[in-house]
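User:
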Amino acid sequence: MNKKFGIIGNPIKHSLSPILHNYWFKKYKIDANYSIFEVKNENELPGIIAQIRNKELSGINVTLPYKQKIVSHVDTIINDAEITSSVNTVYLDSKETIIGENTDVFGLQAAYLKEIDNASQKKALIIGAGGVSPSVILSLQKSGVQEISITNRTREKCIFLKNKFNNLKIIEWDKLQQELKKFDIIINATSLGLKGSKDFNFKFDPTKSNLIYIDTIYNPLETKTLKYLKKMDIKVFNGLNMFIYQGQKAFYLWNKINPEIDDKLIELLVTNLK
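Assistant: Predicted structure:
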């Protein structure tokens, strides 16, 4: 029986998730396919959940702007999703319960944060307080980072996250550029730099020479800011590895197979970004 999976969001056309999961379905000879579902508003979410309950859909990934909005539509949220109130993977378990999980936290840790030495002595800044930000905060905490700050154009969103994660510090948006030099790790969790969108309207300068800059964006592979910092000999990472690792965990939750991340897959993904 052909199983159906997919990703919901808006905008969604840029997603590489179908390429990622369909590659693994073919590799492991699983009779399944993965598609894009453009969900234009929240009113469509109950219909998607009904398809999972009726087993028309075997599972979905969730991207912007529905990572928080989907929470009230599933039966229960578990593990990292419970802590972050952010869901990016949904499936029906053996007890017919619709589960909301979060694989973004694992994705960020597996892709980049495991490589950070002396994490407890590092100061981290998250730029953006949207859908992926709670996952970024939790992954930093799990990696041992003690001092985490956040900034966002809309301060209310920062306050909401501070109420969830007590030790979070808020940096005012209009003071962001002058505060950059205080941080060892900076993570862009906004859509600034995304293909077809604006980038930051200021240069990331000055910063610490040993700064680690992580962009959660993978399309394009190098945003304007990432290119600029790379030229300054700053250690930079785009969002591609995070995307692959979060997908690997989602695939495991659905199929109980831990798929291999091989060179052929990475080449396929990179080719589709050119």
